[in-house]
Amino acid sequence: MKPSAPLKIAIIGSGNIGTDLLIKAMRSPHLTCTLFAGRNFNSAGMKRASQLGVPISDRGIEAIVDNPSICDLVFDATSAQAHVEHWAALDKLGKTVIDMTPAKLGEFCIPAINAQACLDAGGRNINMVTCGGQSSIPIAHAIGNVHADIEYVEVASSIASRSAGPATRANLDEYIETTEDALQRFSGARRAKAILILNPANPPIDMQTTIYAKITDPDLPAIRAAVEAMVEQLKTYVPGYQLIVPPTLDGGRVVTTIKVMGNGDYLPQYAGNLDIINCAAIAMAERLAVARNAKERQHG
Fold this sequence. Notes:
By secondary structure, this protein is α/β, with parallel strands linked by helices.
């Protein structure tokens, strides 16, 4: 049997997220990076890509528009505002895009919850929500599977200030809005609130997210079992995901806390907030690659 060809990917955005994505993609047998595009050849990310022998460009999206055959899948690791323009161009080219920004143009994707549904829907714009969303929504979803009627859910994520780059800071409003929308959708809660705290402590703190759910007569043993099962599922693609405070009752609310340690691929381990969304994106790209190869074998 002919071996499956890796999916050709391009990464737009040479910052921390884009560069860490590159390192993770290069480790995957299902993916091959054929373009790493930014705006500045002197950026740390572009220099790292060049050292790794990956084709680079300082023309951003234009590098793909001028040579569409260079890739099958595009990771957009720029900003919510830029993604609107990027998607308009990539949609015309028929490209599949994994959106790392909180632009929420495409289908919300939390691999532990709806990876297969996203594949079955066939949408070409896959939105990875936010880092806080990837860490908290699976837990809120697990709780919602036990209790269909959640009055209110709140998530508070604390991340190291050093792990929040310019794009993250510029997109804080979009971060909050997108996280809250996805949180409400996947948990079924009537109301949702998201809080992001940038902690300047030195040494930098690890990412922690606390989930609060207001539920009438909560079944705590069932909630704990559902949350623990979800944590194990998340660990299959986010090894540093940890449950540090199991679901407990506090003042009429169910409260639980998780911590995310990064893999330390390009970013420091404390940058679990960036690592989790990148791990989720790579997991989704690998599923797309496997599905494409299966389809090609079926027809050929």
